[in-house]
Amino acid sequence: DGQDPLCGWCIQEQACTTSHKCREPSAFKPAWLAATGKSCVNVTNMAPSSISYQSLVDEPAATKLTFSLESVQVVPLNGLDLSCEYRSGMQRHSAPASVQSDRHVECPLPPAEKLSPPRKGNDFEPLAVHFAVKGRSIVTRSVSIYNCNSHSSCMNCTNSQFGCAWCYTSGTCEEKGAPCKHLSGSDVALIETEDKCPQVWTKSTNPGIVVHSGLSSQIAVRVKNLQPEQTQAVKCKFVNAGKEKVVTADITATTLTCAEAEFEFEGENPYVLVGFTVTWGGLDLPLDNLMAIQVRVYKCRYMVAYCGQCLSLDSDYNCGWCQGPCDTPVPCPGTCSLSKQC
């Protein structure tokens, strides 16, 4: 198989050597693994395989990391200086390791301030764990440090692989079993599956709601899974080029209707997309907008240049070709415009 039968891995030196050169008092038995054996030091049975970032904040000393070493045993020698070396982003932390029954290792987990917290929208960060002797890494594995709070929508929260759940009264993603309460202090059940998430939606296959620039419109969408208090103090928020417009909204059965708002933009662009968010309650907590519903504010005259193109536009735009009067033999240019503006 091409392997030199005299070569092998000197575990403590972390080098490929012959057996007689692997002489230093070793923390491991065997100290040298023959290449022909095709087995390396490995980590198995790591527990927990994922760790809550919040638990490290709340109870930093409560959880230990345990794992087993495969293919070797640890020899009980003095001065071994066994440790777990943790690496998270640019952060480094060392913790003493203890060994039970020759191959089972236990290490304290690092405190939260020694970890890179999961970024917003990304609910976990890998934590590299190096089992080391005298500061030299012998074998490494990774565990996931997760943070349910990194999610800002019910759908992303309930789809997390770490069993997160949504507290709609605070608009936060929590670990299952965490408290979720009404403003009155009474308990509220966490939402654990995405099909129960309060949200706005539309039957249209195109989630863009069209409004001609310069016109006022009452934007209407569907809603589902709303809790009773989520029908109170409802608002529609429209954002365009950093400018925000907020209007009140009413909910009737499964329909939400925003109060009339004017939509307009400057320039010769054919359209702009206006961000759309529905909030509820005194905290202005947003409802999920899974379909990414937006308002498309458009101008017929800049959408197309020719009559045929204009008449081929989707009927939702309500555009038509407007041919101006001709008082001279010179050909008269027409424009694509709203029928009522011609």
UniProtKB/TrEMBL annotation:
GO molecular function, one term: semaphorin receptor activity
Residue ranges constituting the PSI domain according to the UniProt record: 1-41, 147-198, 299-337
One Pfam family cited in the UniProt record for this chain: PSI
Localization of this protein: Membrane
Any GO CC annotation of this UniProt entry: plasma membrane
Protein keywords: Glycoprotein, Membrane
GO biological process: regulation of cell migration
Record's protein name: PSI domain-containing protein
